[in-house]
Design goal:
Alpha-Beta Plaits; about 30% strand; 4-stranded mixed β-sheet; about 290 residues; 5 helices; alpha+beta
């Protein structure tokens, strides 16, 4: 009897877990149960806000190449080419400029011509003529005030190639929180405006959803569907505690040492961070009276 009771209890637990995981309706069903907050008239409002802020991160790459008879000598030669530049950039501090250096070794083979006169590499281990080592630097500038001088210092080091500069916007937690609050306020403003235009009266708040998913549940589609739409409200950068984009940011100099100083001073490249958009949204559901 004890075994049967235990088995029955286990089956009930399994059945309960299965029921808890059952979707509210089957795909293609004509109706699905309405959520609890739709048992009375409501208005569900999506708040969408957008702010433009200057990019605060930059990234670019540079490569230095060396060719020698053996791989060790080529690696040492490539390392010497980046040593002074590496020291100059790291002196700015890891919180402002971060460097990643990798080395790629490639064998260079003896060559011969085939019957048609095409130049072919004799790719055999005993036919390696020299080694080429490429020192690749990935430079992440976390303080854009140091971007121009860092880029000029890299160019002055005479790399074999320099990659394009890419910019990104990484807002801090203060800006994220302020923009999220603005999205909730925008949802409330939109709801009040719609209710006033319709002649109804706005009731109490039923739901505040910072993800805005609640406002995108379509109870008539047979399954929850999440779609986008609408235009965001523009928010001033000062309203969320962010400084406005400076007209011409003052770029701080990287101290260049060695014989590259004169070359660095002759290089003047302007790299002003672009303005990028940051968006957020929220959902607020009100009762209608």
């Amino acid at each position: 009897m004890m075994y049967k009771a235990t088995l029955a209890a286990a089956l009930l637990l399994v059945a309960g877990a299965s029921a808890a995981q059952t979707p509210p309706a089957e795909l293609g069903a004509r109706y699905v149960p309405a959520p609890w907050w739709m048992r009375e008239p409501v208005i569900a409002s999506i708040g969408m806000v957008r702010v433009e802020l200057p990019a605060n991160r930059a990234r670019f790459s540079a490569q230095f190449s060396a060719v020698e008879r053996d791989a060790a000598a080529a690696t040492a030669a490539a390392a010497r080419k980046v040593a002074e530049l590496d020291a100059d950039l790291r002196r700015a501090g890891a919180d402002r400029i971060r460097l990643t250096t990798t080395f790629v070794t490639r064998p260079l083979y003896d060559q011969y011509r085939d019957k048609e006169g095409n130049l072919i590499d004799n790719q055999r281990a005993d036919k390696i003529d020299r080694y080429e080592v490429v020192a690749a630097l990935e430079i992440e500038v976390r303080d854009v005030a140091a971007l121009e001088s860092a880029y000029n210092a890299v160019v002055a080091a005479k790399p074999s190639s320099v990659g394009a500069v890419s910019f990104t916007l990484e807002p801090d937690n203060k800006v994220k929180s302020a923009l999220a609050n603005e999205a909730v306020r925008d949802a409330a403003r939109r709801a009040r405006a719609a209710v006033e235009a319709s002649g109804a009266r706005l009731g109490a708040v039923k739901i505040v959803d910072p993800t805005a998913r609640v406002c995108r549940t379509d109870v008539l589609a047979g399954w929850p569907s999440y779609v986008g739409g609408g235009r965001p409200t523009d928010v001033d950068a000062q309203d969320i505690g962010a400084p406005p984009p400076p007209p011409a940011p003052a770029m701080e100099a990287i101290v260049v040492t060695g014989g590259r100083r004169a070359q660095s001073e002759s290089v003047r490249v302007t790299l002003q961070p672009p303005v990028q958009a940051l968006q957020d949204e929220a959902c607020v559901v009100f009762a209608l009276l």
